[in-house]
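Section handout 9: paired folding examples.
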Amino acid sequence: MVEGDLLDLPLPNLLSAMSTEGSTVMLRVQRGGDSGAVYFHEGVLVHAETEKLAGNHAVYELLSWVDGRFRLVRDPERRPRTITQRVPEFLSATSDQPDPFGGTLRAAIAPVSGTPDERLLTELMTLLTRLEQDRVRLSDGGISGGGVAALLVTTAVVNSLVAFVTAKCGDPDVRPSRVLPRLADSQPYTQLLGEENDRISVATVAGVLKTWDSSKEDRQSLFRDLCRALLDVLAVYCATVSTFFHGSREREEWKATSDVFIDGLWTAVQQVEA
């Protein structure tokens, strides 16, 4: 573990060093009562968080902190991918515009460059960054309404990927009406899920869960089985996205990132009291 003062070693220098050295670490930053962290995996900045922000916005906020303390800790655990820019892009943006959110706005309106695979990966990472907020809400108990509300949030996450895939692919086999029957043999609880307007519907099962009058353990078990069915559907759509890539590098990065995201979402729903 390494600790220090940002006045002696500014955060831009630390980010550059972690990227250049190919580090797999967590860099935690503390400034007064505020704190945040950035996570590197083999030199790639994959995730950042502050008390109120995550992803790109969190990086820009942390880069605006010129004083404070930092601590470097080895972090072998894979983190969800919420970052859509590389370290040099963050640093060049903040050098042009000291306001951290000014850089974010410029990045949002700037034309996306790179190969088709790189543009697709950036688009997907941006989507997962948004969906990561819902995972955090589930994990931190930030959703009121118990199991029914959590089920609806999980369904919305799944439908975001469904919408992405159906917009990109005209094959009728990617529609929920075709996907759900194929999953029924391996995941019986997908038979309880519905389909409406090319989206997954949980209207019926949410009503069942809401009026469930058996034991608390049975209700919790039903909730988890339904969430597991939803995540199995999500895994199918994430696998379908993999077929959109032409090259192996971006395809493998997407697979690793989506696997971590699904695992994290499953961990989050298991913490919900149905």
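Moving on to protein 2 of 2.
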Amino acid sequence: MNTTSKFLGRALKAVSIAVIFSCISLPALASSGASFTMYPTAATVDPEGFISIGLYVSSPTTAINAVSGVINFPPDELDGLSVDTSDSIAGLWVDQPKISAETGTVTFAGVIFNPGFQGSLGKVLTVRFKAIGSGTAKLSVTSSRILANDGEGTSLQVGSPAAATVTVSTPVHPGASQVSQANTAGNVLPGILTDNSPGSASAVAQALGIILIVLAATAAIYNGYMLRKLIKRSSSGKTLSQDEEEVLKKLKKDIEIAEETLEKKKD
């Protein structure tokens, strides 16, 4: 195919698309059930966080072959970063979807190849946003049009306008009373609060008491083992060195201290 033929082919396709979207004088179908939906319809994002909002079209009773409209968003609260159409039901775009940061809009107009689309929640596009403000950002779709795949480009009646809300969560201010996030990471003892709540001091004391009991019991077991080992060596007739005699005296003393500690904790 030469260059002239390719040019004529593209020109014919462009004219066909223009004809589809220019059929505004034809009557609408009163009971088409066609509609746009945004998902998620409600979401919460951290400040400076990211959120992706998908736009879907549904037409359960009539096959459609074209969709267009404008997604509106507050530019002082959300920053439109990109539009993804990689898995869109639209196979051709009259004009690629584009974001306007000044007006807070995303315009789109796409064509669905024959036999068109009929069903629920066909993905049109996905817009990725960054939260740059605070509060609740409201998104909506206006100037929406859905055309039937009936050979005439009949404009279908569109249901309730699609809408979504994105709430930017309020950052936690330093010094606020809360459970330390380090607890969940295992950096401090579980269940011990890092604030000044009434139960904090008693919780710490209780945890330290448990630790002391465990340490005392562990020391008693180890020292008992070493003591039995030295006694056995002494009973076999072997003479203990001066250092071993000192170790034996220390072990006996440590065991006495450990036993006293355990008795006090029991009481």
